[in-house]
Amino acid sequence: MRWSFLAVMCATVAAISCGFAGAGEFDPVLNSQYADWSLMPPSIAAFTVCHGFGCRDRTEVAFSASDRVKMAQILRTGQSSPAAERKAIATAVAWFDRRVGPETGTMHHVARAGMSEMSNPDSQFDCIDASRNTTSLLLVLDELHLLKHHRVERPAGRGALIDGRLPHETAVVADLTTQKEWAIDPWTHAAGERPDVIPLEQWQQDC
Hints:
By secondary structure, the protein is of the alpha+beta class. It is built from 6 helices and 6 strands. The strands form 2 sheets. A 4-stranded antiparallel sheet has the order 3-4-5-6. The protein has a two-stranded antiparallel ribbon with strand order 1-2.
């Protein structure tokens, strides 16, 4: 993994706080992040999946009507409470990974992809890819009005090498009732597995 590049990116992300208004009302800073990467903001009609480390490779994916039905079915299981919705979000992220794998060639990506996977990077996700794809999926779920208990936040980062930790980035949601932020981090898991869903403050303290 290109740690010097990630250090700059994750340190930048870590310095950015505050919430995100949701699809259709893009926070200017988050919107500029998509622009900085020459990415169109995600929507139901068009979705760019990043892979290959640092969004080097990009695959356009369109959600079909059956995809939207599937997302609605998954999120419906989480309507009862914020905790239930976070479980549903995790299920949706795992489903999304399996859904886009055949189109992106990432069906067999490994957990914590790093330097040892650089010989075939296009089939892998680093934390930059994973956090952007997850954030984009969350924005699509929000655009479909499927998130009832959470809002989508900007990605968060931790580690900057100088503190002895490798840089890492994650997608984030905030509980609408408590305002508590939660990391949604699939990079630590292999293809099709559910992501880590843990309090952001705990995630930021981990190595």
